[in-house]
Amino acid sequence: MSDPNQGPSRRTVLAGASGAAAAVALTGPSALAAPRSSHAPRATDRVAAAQAYTWRTAAIGGTGFITGVLFHPKVKGLAYARTDIGGAYRWDDTAQRWTALTDHLGWDDYNLLGVEAIAVDPADTDRLYLALGAYAQSWAGNGAVLRSADRGATWRRTDLSVKLGGNEDGRGTGERLLVDPRDSAVLYLGTRHDGLLKSTDRGATWATASFPAAANASGQGITFLVAAERVVYAGWGDGGSALYRTRDGVTWESVPGQPSSAATRVPVRAAFDTNTRSLYVTYANTPGPNNQTDGAVHRLDTATGAWSDVTPVKPSGGDAFGYGGVAVDALVAGTVVVTTNNRWGPVDTLYRSTDGGRSWTSLKDTAVLDVRETPYLNWGGSAPKFGWWIQAVGIDPYDSRHLVYGTGATLFGTRDLVHWAPQIRGLEESAVRQLIAPPAGGAQLLSGLGDIGVMYHDTLTASPSRGMASNPVFGSATGLAMAALKPAVVVRAGWGDQGNGALSTDGGRSWRPFATQPAIASTAPGPIAVNADGSTLLWSFVHWDGTKHPGFRSTDSGATWREVPTFPKGAVPVADPVDRTRFYVYDTDGGAVYRSTDAGATFVKGASGLPSGDVQFRVAAAPGRTGDLWLSAKWNGLYRSTDGGSSFTKVTSCWGSYALGFGKSATAGGYPAIFQTGATENFVGVYRSDDTGASWTRINDDTHQWGWTGETITGDPRVHGRVYLGTNGRGIQYGDPA
Question: Domain spanning 432-737 has what CATH number?
């Protein structure tokens, strides 16, 4: 999953006295509260009213990379999962669903929704640890460790002075966090660029520990830590010796006799079979999940020191891949499962051995996949795939035939090694880019998502029955728009192999690709708009690297297109919801609004001198009104125009506005309710206004923040108070007054 084009402000974390971390104690009710924004209060700040809301997650079924899954070795039915940008989860075996554990992380802590590693304490079954941090780049905030004594119900937090990379290459390796098997108070954290960190107080403080391999600023560092009885093994991903061990928690040594190929491969994961005292290690030529073309599996007899090559199938020629996940059966000696990764030809599989790796069976070959609960996994009508990006796998320590494995889109599980179905209820990781709540009838909601295209939500409590919008199927959606006066007409744009734009005349139930498209569409699809009566389309084009291109217009439903020279390059077009001849465009480069009164054929400059320089400044048009525009200018605040963009007035009730939308009015015939992700106090929250922006009511709370939520928000035109919120990794959140 990917980061938004421009992230929110990032909180500076200072190193603690140890030189490695600063501890932040969160106790009582505030234990679930993320730290407030670092913005200083302004003169215009005021304390907003608050209204209790009930928040739920719209069901789709994963839609993101499950980077780790961990069964608790001592508690039946207890498991944890981690994702690359969507936080961590706990499995509730009674309810048969996942519970999100990190929704309390707020706007300034969005980087912490990338989970680098999970650890449990076998000696204290309620203790749980998370190593958080999505990016190790210079612009990213530092990582943090969360520690819980109640399985993630409440947390205490320590901010690190180093960066972690839960959404970078190597995010499927691990686990990089471990409780010392000799002493539950001791934890180890393997970092990418800063060596080994150690805590002697259950994760409250951290300090750099000695480790024989030298860290570097661009490598993988320590890829995993695993306990084999009282010995701790560490994988090293930067060449040379691939495996180290310590018997006393202080002195580390290179494990003797390692396979010669280990020096040029990355050790991805390891698992220890206590019944046979065997350590299984998977390798690949890159950390993955992408670009792996070679790999192996080796077994170490920890009692004798003997190594064995137990690779199920050696990658070669057109069948190039690496090895990723590995899990052992706690109940049956010598039973182990490993996964292939990045095997795009035959598709990835799980290999299972019951004789310590001497022989293997491919579980994919006999698998029966049931994706009825998550129809999008049919990928627009083709057969469901067994999986790709498989670097997480687990065997239930209390049920040898209960296996789960993560993919780039979901988590599959089986109870008989043959029949597989998503075991994903409650876990949603989509990055949401567009949301439309139709005015009446039809869909409950339409959504445009990163990686998974466009969805038609019949209901919010079950995965969309039509799956991904097809004809064509998109990867990421870049645009989604509905004709305000003719809501049966919907258009979408995105990254697709068989076209980059499509039209629906039945409210998004079915689609047909545009008959033609501008040449630039295949490499730079961008936002798209449709005028009020559905007769004119405006398509903007932005390359993934930010390069902006001229906009194009169609008046025949995409049969032909013409460039609009006066359209600001790469801008987001917005249609007037009443007047079919009007479009509006905000030029972020020049800080000006451009208007069209001839259905997008030409544009002229309107208001100028507005905030500039940010690609995400955007205009929203109030439904049922002509020329009533609102401009969300992020930290520059909120502006309104009532004259079609000729002039704008700053709204003084808030100082930050990141995404804005409209819902049903509180009174018959009144002004639409306004929803925004914004700031009226000294932090970013989710707000509703029922008085045209004169005042705001906070509708989320400190336990429901979901990191970065600045892309899209909309109210429901049918139900006053209902709001739909797009997150960058926690799917679609929707709320109703409690």
Answer: 2.130.10.10
